[in-house]
Amino acid sequence: MTLALTGATGHLGRLVLESLLARGVAPDDIVAIGRDTSKLADFAERGVQLRTADYSKPETLAAAFEGVDRLLLISGSEVGQRVKQHGNVIDAAKDAGVGFIAYTSAPRADTSDLVLAPEHKATEQLIRDSGIPFSFLRNGWYTENYVQVAQQAKHTGLIIASLGDGTVASASRKDFADAAAVVLAGPGHENSVYELSGDTAWGYEELAQVVSDIVGREVTYKRVSSKEHRTILTKAGLPMGQAGFVVSLDTNTRDGALGLVTGDLARLIGRPTTPLAEGLAEAYAAAE
Ligand SMILES: NC(=O)c1ccc[n+]([C@@H]2O[C@H](COP(=O)([O-])OP(=O)(O)OC[C@H]3O[C@@H](n4cnc5c(N)ncnc54)[C@H](OP(=O)(O)O)[C@@H]3O)[C@@H](O)[C@H]2O)c1
Asked: Where is the NAD(P)-binding domain positioned along the sequence (predicted)?
């Protein structure tokens, strides 16, 4: 059984590789696919097969998927390009006779107002249309996303946001990676949709407390309106588009797009998800 993953060079991909190996998958049954496989030399040394492919170059994908039974498509990072890119991956997987695709999607991708959801919804539809058995891993927010918030708060003592009492059911990347490895390597996940979240949803008052403990100073959550938030971000030098994106995400969070707790992630990985305080402290220390 040959298991492959795209995006293997990224943060999540590397953790999935570690998780597959830790679960006893034979290294030569794993195909790690990336644009620059020199980033994966350490895995090649451990016997993992490396193949080069780019989501934007269909001919590279055809060669990468030869002999692959089960594929994890890790969503790309080029927002706006991804439906076309993922479509190339799905077409190539179909042509190569891949028997199963797991895809890293977004929470409630088919119904959510989340600003990032449309590309994931469209990709899910392409996978359904392909007829290839699938699993949608609708990953919630990574706890690691808040390292930068903590770094800024260390200097300012503030976390400024326009999400009100919105909550985030985050989990560590490793938790999501373990789930992806379980689904890729194990039976019984055909045509499944998992809403993957941390075991608890936390608000920004709690985040401020956790960040205070991590950075060693009092940190306060400052609530601002969407309009104020946009002004603060643009005055700080963020381009208009990016500021709008951040504010939209806060609006989505305020409206509940990231706060759903389902238990799917803990059930898949067979353990509780990593709590915010532990996951953020670890990620913050790693980034220092
Ligand atoms: N749930 C969340 O909180 C969250 C947060 C951020 C991102 N995401 C999504 O989850 C994915 C994985 O997260 P991550 O932390 O591992 O992100 P990451 O470290 O940025 O990794 C992205 C991976 O996608 C690959 N990639 C991007 N464009 C590609 C292309 N055209 N062809 C082939 N490969 C391409 C990158 O390859 P290179 O190494 O060659 O660049 C890299 O391996 C992201 O790509 C994004 O879609 C989720």
From this structure: 7-185
